Amino acid sequence: MSNIFNDLNKMVNTIQKVDRLLTEKPKTKYITKRFTLEEVNFLYSQLCRVEDFEHTDEEWSLLTKLKKKLV
User: Fold this and answer.
1) For a Cys-Cys bond, which of 27, 29, 41, 55 suits 59, CB 3.0-4.6 Å?
2) What is the pLDDT of residue 33?
3) 17: exposed, middle or buried (C-beta count within 10 Å: 0-12, 13-18, 19+)?
4) Where is 56: in which H helix or E strand?
5) Does the global pTM surpass 0.70?
6) What are the extents of the domains in the chain?
7) Rounded CA gap, 23 and 62, in Å?
8) With 70 as the cut, is the pLDDT of residue 61 above it?
9) Cα 42 from Cα 9, distance rounded (Å)
């Protein structure tokens, strides 16, 4: 009989965890904007200029992500 309660308790815990994951808001806030091709090319050129300076690892990671999104 206790086995049933243990299984039931595990199931309830799992359901609560899944519910928390599904209802959590994402930590990253996304902004949706439309750009013309000229604007994207300009942003890309500015990004390439910025790459010439020294950056932390975190900044390099962000620059790389931006570059991939713009190309």
Assistant:
1) 55
2) 83
3) exposed
4) none
5) no
6) 2-70
7) 27
8) yes
9) 57
Contact 37, 14 (CB under 8 A): no
Amino acid at 50: V
In order of 18, 19, 28, the CA distances from 24 in angstroms are 10, 8, 12
Alpha helices in 1-56 (DSSP H): 2-23, 37-50
The pLDDT, as a whole number, for residue 42 is 86
Please name which of 30, 35, 64, 31 lies closest in space to residue 47, comparing C-alpha atoms: 64
Rounded to an integer, the average pLDDT of 23-29 is: 78
In this prediction, residues 13-22 reach a mean pLDDT of: 87
44-56 pLDDT, tens per residue? 888 878 777 777 8
Q: Which amino acid, one-letter code, is at 15? A: I
3 state SS of 25:
coil
